[in-house]
Design brief:
The protein is α/β, with parallel strands linked by helices. It has a seven-stranded parallel sheet. Strands 5-6 form a two-stranded antiparallel sheet. A two-stranded antiparallel sheet has the order 10-11. The protein starts with 7 loop residues before the first strand and ends with a strand. The structure holds zinc ion (ZN) (2 copies). The site of one zinc ion (ZN) has 5 residues, from loops. It comes from Deinococcus rhizophilus.
Length: 263
């Protein structure tokens, strides 16, 4: 008998984003096989045509995304709690566009993520050389200001992968900028994506770091567990370890349904 609580993987993608593999049905089956109780699809939202177009679904595919998740939801009813979410990007100027996407369907959970500093997709391995031309302190201050902007839009339930610029090993010289973001996130009552994908990347550390996880927990910020799976084999990736790290930090885990946190 397992003593672990029923786990949900609340950050997963589908092939509609053009950089993931496997049918959503296979993600759901993988979640069942991993002993999870729930799975939330949070594929990358459509964005204005000029923004990151190759790496996300088009606007005219949004209904197909919703219909596919609904089908999988029906297929797995009673066996797996399948939910419908999105990972939206925060990029200044696109708020109204994102607002319309969020109004178009009944989402369970919406993550707000920052993947760009200006025109630089800083988490894209293709552009990693750019870090060599950047001052890391300044980079993290710029990034933190954007994440704070994301939090303040009121559009999102949780902030995605809080310390993402560390992905390839470029850690912040200090945590001051992201600690200030945590104050804002706590004040606004938002949650944090506890994202195990970092354990699959060069940094070999989940997002957020153990230090930032403790700082968030001490501010009372809830966490939402996610693998950021872009393939069925990644569903549930190291969620048990994530739970242990959160327990050690005194962090509370929630899931989202109908945009409401559930303990
Ligand atoms: Zn992705
Ligand atoms: Zn992301």
């Amino acid at each position: 008998m397992s003593l672990s609580p029923p786990l949900h993987d609340s950050h997963t993608h589908t092939p509609l984003c053009n950089h993931a593999t496997g049918h959503p049905r296979e993600y759901a089956q993988a979640a069942l096989d991993a002993g999870l109780a729930g799975l939330c699809f949070t594929d990358h939202t459509p964005m204005p045509a000029w923004y990151d177009a190759p790496w996300r679904m088009r606007l005219d595919q949004l209904d197909e995304y919703v219909d596919t998740v609904r089908e999988v939801q029906a297929e797995f009813a009673g066996r797996l709690d399948v939910r419908l979410g999105l990972e939206a990007d925060f990029h200044p100027g696109t708020e109204r566009y994102v607002e319309r996407i969020l109004a178009a369907h009944d989402w369970d959970y919406v993550i707000g993520s920052v993947h760009y500093l200006g025109a630089w997709g800083f988490d894209n391995p293709e552009f990693v050389a750019e870090y060599g031309d950047r001052d890391l302190g300044g980079l993290y201050r710029h990034y933190a200001a954007l994440v704070e902007g994301a939090a303040r839009t009121g559009l999102f339930d949780a902030i995605g992968h809080l310390d993402l610029p560390k992905k390839f090993g470029h850690r912040a010289p200090d945590d001051s900028a992201l600690l200030r973001v945590l104050d804002v996130v706590a004040g606004l009552g938002l949650s944090l994506d506890f994202n195990t994908a970092g354990w699959r990347k060069p940094v070999a550390e989940a997002y957020p770091s153990p230090e930032l996880t403790r700082a968030a927990a001490s501010r009372g910020i809830p966490f939402v567990l996610g693998s950021d799976a872009h393939a069925p084999g990644e569903v549930g990736f190291r969620l048990g370890e994530a739970l242990a790290q959160l327990a050690e930090a005194g962090g509370r885990v929630v899931t989202f349904a109908g945009r409401q946190a559930r303990g």
